[in-house]
Amino acid sequence: MDEELLELQRQFEFAQQVKSSVRLSDRNVVELVQKLQELRVIDFDLLHTVTGKEYITQEQLKNEIATEISKLGRVSVIDLADTIGVDLYHVEKQAQDVVLSDPGLMLVQGEIISQSYWDSIAEEINERLQECSQISVAELAGQLQVGSDLVQSVLEPRLGTLVKARLEGGQLYTPAYVARVTAMVRGASRGIFVPSNLSALWAPLQQLVQEMNGSSGVAVENAFFQSIFNRLLKEEEMLGSLRAGTHWTPSVFAVAQKECVDSFFSQNSYIPYETMQKLGISQAVQFLQYHVASLIFISLYFFSRYPDGKPLSAAFIHSSMIEMLDSTTEDAIEQNSWIDSLSVLPASFTSQDANKILLLCPSVQSAQKAEKALILAESYVISSGFIKGIYDQIEKEAEAFSIQASTASLIDHPSKSSESQESIPANTDKGSKKKKGKSASMKTATVETVPDDEEEARPKSKRNQKKGRDSSSSQKLDAKAGGKKESVKAQEGNNFIPPDGWVMKKIVDSVPEFEDEGTSEKNPDSILKHLADLMRPMLINSLKERRKKIFTENADRMKRLMDDLQKKLDESFLNMQLYEKALELFEDDQSTSAVLHRHLLKTTAATIADTLLHDLDILNKLKNGIEVGDSKAQDPVLLESSERKALAKNLNGSLSRKALALVEALEGKRVDAFMTTFRDLAEESGLVLKKLDKKLERTLLHAYRKDLISQVSTESDPVALLAKVVSLLYIKAHNKALQAPGRAIAAAISHLKDKLDESTYKTLTDYQTATVTLLTLMSASTGEEHDCSADRILSKRELLESQMPVLRSLVLGDSQPQQS
């Protein structure tokens, strides 16, 4: 078998050496290779070269890549593709396999680098370090055209072997250079005797190193100095404490600091935190003000050294200071006096500190438990007896203040009394005597006759009817005020309660020592403000109880007042409606109508408006706890315009607005406007005004006519008689109760021309002409002509008196006016 193989080898070698006379073309060779691949004779991949004239296997490509790497140490993949002549895609693919199969290789940014290359680079770096002492990693990376991180990762395992240097902060330093800088750091650190920030120390060292290295030197990072400092501290070449990495406190300062604190505390029995912070005892030096962390640190420090001490917000104290303050406050409490603890404590103590010490005093604790003393404004201890003495004095003055404030806000207008006015103008004393009979008759008519709408609303029971009439006004008033009761009470209470400023002023009057504390606007935390806040609620309760007592006493009087007012308005308002109807006869005569409207507003309307305003003012005063003297119920109230406005303004809310509207209407020119505002005010006050119906009108006219007939029969004044006769004629002719002033009598007589016969009308006109003549003579009688005028006046008056029986016969005799 072996011989056969050897024979075949010889024949194959001979065939190869024999030159063929027939050559295959490139195309034939390609087709032959493809055929062999199809027949699986060639069962491995073949790669074309860039020229396309050669085939190369993948294994051969790997071998050639490995050969190039071993020869150069660092080769680019692109350069490999050009050198081998194979497409870049296949070279990159095989290069990755080569790198993965060999741990000594790395593929970085399209380059394959071997460890032998880095070893040679490390040797070169070591040689450069011997010349310049330091090299920047960034500089090396720039020269090698790789990243700084890659250079640093490559150099770290070679430090101390191939590279005799120290890597710190991106810099390579030789051992000699590190030793020199270490000596500089050691010397600078040992020269510090007070707490310092190491960052401030590194700056001058950097400048010194820069000057030492010259212009070619590289700046040293703070981290390099810090690492050297930390190593020295660990080796105990420097004594002290390092906090937060940069705050260095040398041990010599700590010893001096401890001695200062012990000396101050032993001499004064306290030490302020501010003093301790100046000595450097704080959680952080940069916090110049008090900080929670620093207080905790200081408290722990003192508790460890002085277990009997107490920590405060601004200082640390010994228990002896509590005993000293306790004896002082105990004396003040026993003497029913007061004390400001800050006055006996050091000036550096705050009010919060004083409060904490007071709460630790046994005498204060027992006094508070027994309610013998109070702590106010954090630092003041005031005995209860002292507070009671001030309060009793202020309480009396507060009552006077409340009464004065009530009187000032609700002006008591003096009511005016005068004789009753007659319904007929140009009244005389004799005519006024008939007012009582007239009023009685009208009142009787009012009681006997009830309007239809009120008859339906009235209860059928006599007992209920009486009860409803007596209490209707007060019930309706309470119902009106129900929704506003709380707010009105609160507002009224605030009006009559002394303000804080008044209370503080009275406290200063009692205790002049508090004057330096100032008012609440200047010092809201002053003892005056706290005392005022303590006493003012007590004053409020006292004044409220007093007002409640007075209000209870005034409740019955308020009810009687409302009932009396209701009765007075029942009569007077019906008369007003009766007189208003007579104004309809003069709507065509505007001038006369205006005179009659103004006359009725100034007489009857003014009387009932003054009565209502006066009684509402009294009711308001009684509600506010103001004592009001009793006035005669039968005397009418007459007010001036300014007094009416003042009374209206003193009322509350909508009642005041409607009262002002009533006053304005009273000074106007129309009776209907007055009637509207009067009804609104009465309704707001809880009063019920009766409406004049036909039945009531007939009753009132009958009583009014009867009263006028009585007056005409007894009238002795010839001037006053004319007005009464004209009023009677209007009742007979128009069934209207006319209220006319003297200057409107002529117009009133002219409106009767169609209702009277010619002789009656002539008698009236002649009598009216003679009356005017008499009044003209009386007003013109002055000076030297007085005697002559008196005779003429007497003659004219006698003439009128002689005609009085004829005038009376017009309304009392057989002759009657013609009816339309």
Characteristics:
mainly alpha; three-stranded antiparallel beta sheet; 820 residues; UFM1 ligase activity; single chain; Arc Repressor Mutant, subunit A
Quick structural gist:
Among the domains are: about 40-100, Arc Repressor Mutant, subunit A, CATH 1.10.10; about 115-175, Arc Repressor Mutant, subunit A (Orthogonal Bundle), CATH 1.10.10; about 530-625 and about 635-690, no CATH class; about 695-815, no CATH class. About 65% of the residues lie in helices and about 5% in strands. The protein contains 34 helices and 17 strands.
The low-confidence parts are: 283-295, 410-493, 814-820
How much helix, percentage-wise, in residues? 55-70%
Given helix and strand content, the structural type is mainly alpha
Estimate the mean pLDDT confidence.
Answer: 74
Cα-to-Cα separation, first versus last residue: 177 Å
Shape: elongated
Strand fraction band?
A: 5-15%
Strand order across the largest sheet? 3-5-4
Instruction: State the helix count.
Output: 34
The total count of strands amounts to 17
- Radius of gyration over all CA atoms, rounded: 61 Å
Q: Largest sheet, if any?
A: 3 strands, antiparallel
